[in-house]
Design goal:
This protein is an alpha/beta fold and 460 residues long. Helices cover 21% and strands 27% of the residues. It contains eleven helices and 37 strands. The strands form seven sheets. It has a ten-stranded parallel beta sheet with strand order 12-14-17-20-23-26-29-32-35-37, with helices on one face. An eight-stranded parallel beta sheet has the order 13-16-19-22-25-28-31-34, with no helix packed on it. The radius of gyration is 31 Å and the shape is elongated. Bound molecules: uridine-diphosphate-N-acetylglucosamine (UD1) and magnesium ion. Uridine-diphosphate-N-acetylglucosamine binds at residues 17-20, 60, 84, 87-90, 92-93, 112-115, 149-150, 162, 164, 178-181, 207-209, 234, 236.
């Protein structure tokens, strides 16, 4: 009976390479800091590692070392950092983590910081092959666009070598089975293999990929396992970054739809790494979710809305054309309609903010009704102040609520008011000039203006 090798029983170190110059990105920051789905690429890689039953990660850093280390840090995985002082290639980079590798792990997996779509699955599969007795397991993928990737040279199921594009013959370049850049190495032999890598190639670099031929020469078993292209796309330039973003978005949208979220035009919806949408949420076309958004059941996010750092409770309605900024919390069945902006405010259950309104630093009670054009004047140029609006209060259209100010439960604010004083429960407040009608005066004015205009005309 064949046994499934138990990767959990084996110790494992992950070496994460993130020290490259990112030359092809043409950027003032390291490419692994560029965001995919709203968080740095390197953080996606670390998440995959956290799911692959490993003990520790050794992060190899170069430019922007502190920022890269900060972006890679996680609570559930110890991460040591190792500086690669000279950029001499991926093989050289792994050896910057010599100290960590030398601690002696059963498995060493090497992952690249510029391969953010990877998930734990292929990493575990590669580890299972080590447990079964292979020495180097390369995670490969098949693609119609192999340009730029190392090609896998396979014979009788064994991986003979990885040929970098610059060193490949024409026949080798025609190979479409490529190196994803991730591999698992027998931890007991890893340092011996890595130390034997030379730099006799087109770029004069120490290529990690040469570990395959080195291991074979030492009698090791080397193989490739295949993973989907959508997990192994690498990011070397901005066009690849956009392709990776698109692949990430497609994958997460699909997962959300399968979990019970409706999207009318999914390809127009943009999610963040942490967007949570519960079952029976409906998302209309052209909606953008920035980081930190949770939406509960049966809520509807109408077209062209932009949400960030916001919580939308069950049955609430947002948009079309609404903007929820950080700290916007909508209660159950609340409504925020078109051209409304909500910032750091609680909107009570069933409350309605339907049109053309700014609500900032406010607490709005249940079932309050906020009329069109209402503005909470929360900022005095120096400090922010809070507006409190009670349950079932009614704010007439075009009111300015100058914070700090409290409007009681059931209170009514007359349209066009500028409210600077607190309003007690059930009181009606009129904060505007009294209207005066002057009978016939419009006609008097009109005739005067016409006469003035005629007097200005040049004489013939
Ligand atoms: C590499 C592989 C290639 C594979 C591709 C997959 C090598 C020699 N080539 O090429 O076979 O198909 O990835 O995406 O391994 N880095 C360092 N220090 C260095 C050089 C690189 O830390 O001195 C890091 C980079 O930050 C990056 C990773 O290693 O995260 C890969 O380097 P990169 O230059 O992108 O290699 P590719 O040309 O993409
Ligand atoms: Mg790369």
């Amino acid at each position: 009976m064949s046994q499934i090798p138990d990767t959990q029983a084996r110790s494992c170190l992950a070496v994460v390479l993130a020290a490259g110059e990112s030359t092809r990105m043409k950027s003032s920051v390291s490419k692994v800091l560029h965001p995919v789905a709203g968080r740095p690429m390197i953080a996606h890689v670390m998440e995959a590692l956290a799911g692959a039953d490993i003990e520790a990660a050794a992060l190899v850093v170069g430019r922007d070392a502190d920022a890269v280390a900060a972006a890679a840090r996680r609570a559930d995985l110890p991460v040591s950092t190792h500086l690669q002082t000279q950029r001499l290639g991926t093989g050289h980079a792994v050896l910057a983590a010599r100290e960590a590798i030398a601690k002696g792990y059963d498995d060493v997996i090497v992952v690249f910081g510029d391969t953010p779509l990877i998930t734990a699955g292929p990493l575990k599969a590669a580890r299972a092959r080590l447990a079964a007795g292979d020495d180097v397991v390369v995670i490969g993928f098949r693609t119609e666009r192999p340009t730029g990737y190392g090609r896998l040279i396979i014979e009788n199921d064994a991986l003979l070598a990885i040929r970098e594009e610059k060193d490949a013959s024409e026949a080798e370049r025609a190979i479409t089975y490529c190196n994803g850049g991730l591999m698992a190495i027998n931890g007991r032999r890893a340092l011996a293999f890595l130390d034997a890598i030379g730099n006799d190639n087109a770029k004069g670099e120490y290529y990690l990929t040469d570990v395959v031929e080195v291991a074979r020469a030492a009698g090791g078993k080397t193989i490739a396992i295949e993973a989907p292209e959508t997990e192994l796309m690498g990011c070397n330039n901005r066009a690849e970054l956009a392709a990776i973003e698109a692949a990430w978005q497609a994958r997460r949208r699909h997962a959300l739809m399968i979990s019970g979220v409706s999207m009318i035009a999914p390809e127009t919806v943009f999610l963040s790494y942490d967007t949570e949408l519960e079952q029976d949420v409906l998302v209309e076309p052209n909606v953008v979710f920035g980081p930190g958004v949770t939406v509960e059941r049966d809520a509807v996010i109408h077209a062209f809305s932009h949400l960030e750092g916001a919580h939308v409770a069950a049955g609430a309605n947002v948009g079309p054309f609404a903007r929820l900024r950080p700290g916007a919390h909508l209660g159950p069945n609340a409504k925020v309609g078109n051209f409304c902006e909500i910032k750091k405010s609680d909107i009570g259950a069933g409350a309605k903010v339907s049109h053309l309104t700014y609500i900032g630093d406010a607490v709005i009670g249940p079932e309050a009704n906020i009329g069109a054009g209402t503005v909470t004047c929360n900022y005095d140029g120096v400090n922010k102040h809070v507006t409190r609006i009670g349950a079932k209060a009614f704010i007439g259209s075009n009111a300015s609520l100058v914070a700090p100010v409290t409007i009681g439960d059931g209170a009514l604010i007359a349209s066009g008011s500028v409210i600077t004083d607190d309003v007690p429960d059930d009181a009606a407040a009129f904060g505007r000039a009294r209207q005066a009608n002057k009978p016939g005066h419009a006609k008097v004015l009109r005739e005067r203006y016409l006469a003035e205009k005629a007097a200005r005309k040049p004489k013939a």
